[in-house]
Amino acid sequence: xxxxxxxxxxxxxxxxxxxxxxxxxxxxxxxxxxxxxxxxxxxxxxxxxxxxxxxxxxxxxxxxxxxxxxxxxxxxxxxxxxxxxxxxxxxxxxxxxxxxxxxxxxxxxxxxxxxxxxxxxxxxxxxxxxxxxxxxxxxxxxxxxxxxxxxxxxxxxxxxxxxxxxxxxxxxxxxxxxxxxxxxxxxxxxxxxxxxxxxxxxxxxxxxxxxxxxxxxxxxxxxxxxxxxxxxxxxxxxxxxxxxxxxxxxxxxxxxxxxxxxxxxxxxxxxxxxxxxxxxxxxxxxxxxxxxxxxxxxxxxxxxxxxxxxxxxxxxxxxxxxxxxxxxxxxxxxxxxxxxx
Length: 341
Hints:
Layout: H1 3-24, E1 29-31, H2 32-37, H3 42-51, E2 54-58, E3 61-64, H4 71-82, E4 85-86, H5 88-94, E5 126-130, E6 141-145, E7 153-156, E8 159-162, H6 164-171, H7 177-189, H8 194-204, H9 212-219, H10 232-243, E9 250-256, H11 262-265, E10 269-277, E11 282-286, H12 289-292, H13 295-310, E12 314-318, H14 320-324, H15 326-340
Parallel strand pairs: 5-6, 11-12
Antiparallel strand pairs: 1-3, 2-3, 4-5, 7-8, 9-10, 10-11
């Protein structure tokens, strides 16, 4: 073999290796244009496709056959093919917002590489494209917009996606107000600015179908004042209590023992209750499996409850079942409140 042939072969091998490393950062997905940046020719890609090294779900989009098939990979294929952004429910899932956690599918599925490849919302690939770009396809759920500014765009897990704020604005077009609120609460708990979210809402709002009206309704709910609950379960618990005739409780209420000089003379912190009516020394805790399962947590809850009882407090517990069948709990809560007032 001549020196020139050897050098060319080494260059080709190096370029392909670099391309594969790059594809691995994008869930195994590349475009033909990106391949050219690594000096890998279309002829080389065609040869690799014939060998089974690359899959071609769409023209100009390739997937490394070595990469596992995942929902994120389908999202990457969608953005590479359309030039758009993952949005709405799929964006909420990418950002990990509360209420939008789908299960990964390890199969390539009957819909093919790049299709939905999952059941219902869990496998949904949803994206937004500028007004007239990209022809509709049955493989992805497409939204079109005339407002998609640079500040609406970000990258999560290597995938182009709408920002947290834009995602919250869009969500109401496809889910209920309560699910929008669940995601909004989660974003605020993480430290995202409500002002940023509101400014995005005002900038994006236009006549016509969108999620803007839903987010405005959520922001205008009268019981959104005060601390953000730790979960949507707690917010639902609070609303259930009020619907049963109780006064509005104080959220995330702290109970101190009154002993010593800690906390400005309030003493030692005994508990932070999900909801409380301090004048009646009555509290409610949302006992979801997510937060309260496990022996260690159970023992800690018992010690806390004993200390609260010593301070004259009564604590009721609400389960998911109670939330779905509220009448008995509402009656018990009202009776306890009446006895202590």
